[in-house]
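As a warm-up, study this chain.
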Amino acid sequence: MAAFALLPFAGVRLPSMTDLPGHIGRYAVMLDGGRSPWLAQYYAFDWRLVGNLGVDLLVTALAPLGAERAGWAAAAAIAPLTILGMAAVSRALHGRVQPGAVLAACFAFANPLLFGFVNYSLSFALALFAFAAWVRWREAAVWRAVPCLALATLGVWLAHAMGWGVLVLLVAGFEAERLARRRSAAALGDAVLRGLALLPPVLLTLLWRGDGGALAVWGDDLAVRKIMNWVVVLRGEAKWLDLATPVLIAAALFAARRRQVLDPRLAAGALLVALACAVMPTTLFGSWGADERIAPAAIVAALLSLRWYGCRAGARKMVLLAVALFGMRTTLIAIDWHRLDRAYAMQLSALDHVPQGARVHAVVLQDGCRTAWQATAWNHLPSLAVARRDALVNSQWLLPGAALLTVRYPLDPALVHDPSQSVDGFDCDGALPDPLATRRRALEGGAWQYLWVIGTRGTDPWPGMRPVWRNADGALYRLPSGG
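Now compare it with the structure written out below.
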């Protein structure tokens, strides 16, 4: 299953993960190191110790591949690592890979990874390995186990602080169950000593918080959002299968409820993660969707806690169900990514008409009538102009306290960062009349040289103006006052 998880990445240049093109734009500046005069003029990249560096560090190690290919390789490694981490936890906890672990693998391509939360997704994979190590080394001498576990914990935090948070909750549940059984001062003292392995990131997080990194926002419609966190847990390509997979797994588990038990050592941690998802803010440490990201982690932990006591034939049926669901979803993702990769390439051909070092204001027209289920890379696709043309583009996000990349070129702040590229272009009655009128007026003055519009659906986004490039779903304009 881990090997099969590479299938969607085979034969595509750009995996269809929503945020990945934005990350690739940042990687390009990071790997350039100030050699390009245009990138040096437009951007500043400041390495800092923050809990959001996972794939950035991996791409740095893969620098000879270039930003795009290194980003592709790092993203491709995450789902296989996650599946292998699930197997490691199951072996550590139960002595062998259980059917529940095979079911958990169906959540390797969950909403966080398909949305392009690559740092968090990598940190969750590492957290699984770290938890497996915690279980295996639980009876080892404190002086031997704590330093190794502290290094593992620090690695998880460096990848992403939310992955470290999940690890802390899993360990807390594991240790709480142990203390509930032993109920002695010696057991409590031992748990406290071993808990020191989780503390190094606490100090780093406090220092990061002083830099403005711990921004917390709950947002509007909180009750609806908390419910939707569980509905969209597998949101990706095929809505019917993404929704059916958890339902079918739950039905199979209910039917076989007398043949398996929950191991409380991990079930307690799964419950803690679920409770955290219910109470935590939408934005934490500058990262949007913090609660949404950990919902799959709670489900994975619950499945990994299952121990099978039934017959071999029943276990085989459970495994076959998991393999079938995983195979179907992964194959559909691969097919759809191949189709989308060709569509992205058609839009990116606009960059053939953009000179090196240009200042490109991108607009991705949005449909205000409906929210698509499918995860695509359209909204951050313009960021590939950074990698391919050393361009200044307005689709890079600014994370308070965690932004390694910042725009240093003097421009209107409202027009230089994500989500400035998102403009309503359609409603339930169809195309809006001249949706770019206000945006074009805001671009007057010569700071921007090109206007790149994606998602036109054959409409004319700039009536009366001749584009330098155009196809059925996009247009590129040279701005009249461009420098």
